[in-house]
Amino acid sequence: MLDSKIPKGPLNSKWEDYKGHCKLVNPANKRSLEIIVVGTGLAGASAAASLGELGYKVKAFCFQDSPRRAHSIAAQGGINAAKNYQNDGDSVFRLFYDTVKGGDYRAREANVHRLAEVSGNIIDQCVAQGVPFAREYGGLLSNRSFGGTQVQRTFYAAGQTGQQLLLGAYSALERQVALGNVKMYNRHEMLDIVKIDGKARGIIARNLINGELERHFGHAVLICSGGYGNVFFLSTNAMGSNVTAAWKATRNGAYFANPCFTQIHPTCIPVSGDHQSKLTLMSESLRNDGRIWVPKKQNDTRKASDIPEEERDYYLERRYPAFGNLVPRDVASRAAKERCDAGYGVGSSKQAVYLDFAAAIERYGNIEVGKRQMNNVSKEEIIKLGKEVVAEKYGNLFDMYAKITGENPYETPMRIYPAVHYTMGGLWVDYELGTTVPGLYSLGEANFSDHGANRLGASALMQGLADGYFVIPYTVGNYLADEIRTKAIPTDHPAFVEAEKKVRDTINKFFAIKGTKSVDFFHKKLGKIMWDKCGMARNEQGLKEAIQEIKALRAEFWSNVRVPGEANEFNPELEKAGRVADFLELGELMCLDALNRRESCGGHFREESQTEDGEAKRDDENFSYVAAWEYKGEGQYELHKEPLVFEECKPTQRSYK
Q: Which pLDDT does position 275 carry in this prediction?
């Protein structure tokens, strides 16, 4: 039976009661306790900095040349917090409610409420670090709207919020490195977990520069390695993003939860051809001011500027009047796919819709005219003033679009289409962020805990920093209080020797195959299977076919992949081979999970389970649970169910109309 360790008592006092009763480690004992942090994005960097500040001996690992290169920098639009600066009705409860509802009632209430509670502290922390959040004229922090909410609670730094937050966490981390509390291992990739007497006690890491395998001991291990969206090959993730750290944890007994809950982001630059290796995200913040539309006429080949207003279908505003263009991501993505599939798509591929800023530019221009008390202003001057305001709010995003597409988004609407973006599934964790392996924790996107079946925009940064700055310092201390008598275990212990041998054998196996197909060949084939049959819409037949196709592809991979070079050198193809091998196993589990969940919820849309007007149809009676899968061997998994109990947010049919 899964023990989620949720504290008893009222929802709004659980976290406060937990903090008041958890075990503590005194400062002298912290200096003799070692913690390994795998991944140094927002969750990992904030955790390593916070734990180093507390006095623990921390080892932090990242496969990039610097923590500043973590994929967290790609988050553009903002970070949510229940500050209610706008006085528009926001509160901790409303942020909690919007998050549970946005996740289609498939998240654990206690974790989400804690996230909402600490959200305000995150903003204070980041401001103190010097994060340059946008401010109003009077100096107050500015907010904007994001999908799935009717308030303005998203704090932002132009279109580079993730980068600025990461620089804040990075500066805190580097301070601890300079003080000697954190030892940083750049260009190192974790390739296995070391367990001793059932507890996580270290990792095997490969030095990516010289290829050497290293053994590292830790009293606890934190997996903060991000999401697994690159299982689809084409995604908005950095090309290095992978599932390997989380998957090695799964192979060592940590359950993997809700793997089929992947998020398709509605606002991405459309695919341009088979040559592409990744997709580019246009921030959801653009939906705050941009209007999404398609022509009312099928297969319309006219330019956007030649289509008059009355011949445009603002389909989100038409179908969801209460939320309009700010419906949650899963709803917006499916609506775009439906319009394109019905023959209303735009662009050469017909797999795109328009995101139009013309109305916002004119609106902002008129506001500026009023502010400046200008008279007899021409339409051209109004447009010019409006463009200046839009450039201030979204300029770097517009510049990025122009560079990639060669089109000027100030003059013509952007073309967008949904793409794989975020993964709500991940390692199963309890209230303390502990996996099913004692001493092994998971933070940020690497765990499953806070977003249910669909993540609201601007909540990823919130969760990563909440876990690292404000949750794990308490919960890992509660565990380590019982470990103060455990001395550092020498890395010549048989468990370390065996784990290293297992990793070395796998590496040698790659080189022994001497096949004819590249790693990317297999990754692309896997990605196509996943996108076609476990992507924006899934059905029973397609998922069963996908499982068999992935099994066959995995067998071909292990008999015909070509990995050039040698083990003991800088070898990116070897890195990719290990990651794709793990994706091939994860992909099968994702399809198995999607097949088992015979309902539609959030980003998981089963074609057999939809309402008359094509919306997702949940089955709370049979599927109101977290699906936690235990690895039992290649292609073999046992399902464990954690029932979801809703006391404050009673599940209803999710409506944004």
A: 83
* Tokens standing for residue 613: 């007007």
Q: Whose CA is closest to 103, among 442, 457, 445, 540? A: 457
pLDDT digits (tens, 9 = 90+) for 632-646: 999 999 999 999 999
Contacts of 553 (CB under 8 A, 6+ apart): 522, 525, 526, 529, 584
Encode 245-255: b = buried (16+ Cβ within 10 Å), e = exposed.
bbbbbbbbbbb
pLDDT at 627: 98
Which pLDDT score, from 0 to 100, does residue 30 have?
A: 98
pLDDT in tens, 212-229: 999 999 999 999 999 999
Backbone angles phi, psi at 215, to 5 degrees: -110, 135
Residue 281 φ then ψ, to 5°: -85, 135
When pLDDT is averaged across residues 551-570 and rounded to a whole number, the result is 98
Whether residue 362 is predicted with pLDDT greater than 90 in this model: the reply is yes
Taking CA atoms, 64 is separated from 38, 48, 514, 570, in Å, by 12, 16, 28, 13
Residue 614: per-residue pLDDT: 86
Pairwise CA distance, residues 257 & 426, whole Å: 5
Do 588 and 526 form a contact (C-beta atoms < 8 A)? no
Count of beta carbons in the 10 Å neighbourhood of residue 342: 10
- By residue count, the chain amounts to 657
Long-range contacts of 316-321 (CB under 8 A, 24+ apart): 316/292, 317/291, 319/657, 320/656, 320/657, 321/657
In one letter, which amino acid is 277?
Answer: S
| Fold of the domain built from segment(s) 264-420 | Flavocytochrome C3; Chain A, domain 1 (3.90.700)
Q: Which residues are catalytic?
A: 329
From residue 507, alpha-carbon distances to 202, 211, 378, 510 in Å are 20, 10, 68, 5
The DSSP-derived string for 97-116 is HHHHHHTTT-S-HHHHHHHH
Residue 273 pLDDT: 79
Which residue carries 């088979």 as its tokens? 274
Share of residues in the chain with pLDDT > 70 (%): 100
Closest to 266 measured CA to CA, from 446, 448, 422: 422
Cα–Cα distance between 425 and 515 in angstroms, integer? 33
For 225, 328, 554, 584, 596, the CA distances from 587, given in Å and listed in that order, are: 18, 25, 10, 5, 14
* Amino acid at position 133, single letter: F
Q: What residue type is assigned to position 17 of the chain?
A: D
What is the per-residue pLDDT across 93-125, written as a single tens digit (0 to 9) for each?
999 999 999 999 999 999 999 999 999 999 999
- Residue 89: closest CA among 149, 151, 146: 151
- Asked if 588 contacts 532 with a C-beta cutoff of 8 angstroms, the reply is no
Band of residue 7 on the pLDDT scale cut at 50, 70, 90: very high
Cβ-Cβ contacts under 8 Å for 158 (sequence gap 6 or more)? 134, 393, 394, 395, 396
At 1 the pLDDT is: 77
